[in-house]
């Protein structure tokens, strides 16, 4: 049972993403602008293509997408963003990896350090936890949308090999980053709408949390995700589904 998949499910149920649409747009615009530095043509820039797909999935207006690309290529003036990762620990030794996009590195590092300290965690040095994660395409699908046989047929036809993982309420398909785009397209072509999908840092093992440690971990996750310069939060916690819903609610 993977904690990151259950966390995505909880956020979906809470409607937190819809409530924070403006924040989502800000993060997507940053990602598009950074991706566009390597070329403004999505046909020859896979990262930009993926960012545009994500923006369209959130119903971002085409003009916003166009301007973000133009800022990235330098056709329009705008902030210059730097991307890097920060690492840290949560309660129980949970490993946390943050994707950061910012126009002021020193300010962001200081603020993130404060968020960790205030919410029961602490910053770690570079490389302290990154080795505990591997980059994968991650597609989460509600069990009500497909059977395991349905998904296996899709996976095989798309050139995949691994069976979908049973994550309680959902199926989870993991792919190599290079195979993610094709797999997502195959899933959608079959009429299945994923609960969430992204190229993400997936933990190689998980730390089980209960009680107060679980409460503290959820508050830390929410505080980190609230920060404007944090694009994504990856963590290897595992919390019981029922408790996760109670705490996050």
Please describe the topology of this protein:
Blueprint lengths: L2 H12 L1 H4 L1 H16 L9 H12 L4 H12 L8 E8 L5 E8 L2 H14 L3 E3 L8 E10 L5 H10 L7 E2 L3 E6 L1 H13 L6 E8 L3 E3 L1 H16 L3 E6 L1 E3 L1 H8 L1
Parallel strand pairs: 8-10
Antiparallel strand pairs: 1-2, 1-3, 2-9, 4-6, 4-7, 5-6
Helix pairs in contact: 1-10, 3-4, 3-5, 9-10
Description:
- The chain is built from ten helices and ten strands.
- It has 249 residues and is of the alpha+beta class.
- The strands form three sheets. Strands 3-1-2-9 form a four-stranded antiparallel beta sheet. A four-stranded antiparallel beta sheet has the order 5-6-4-7, sandwiched between helices.
- A hairpin with a 3-residue loop joins strand 5 and strand 6.
- The longest helix is centred in the N-terminal third of the chain and has 16 residues.
- The chain is globular, with a radius of gyration of 18 Å.
- The two termini are 20 Å apart.
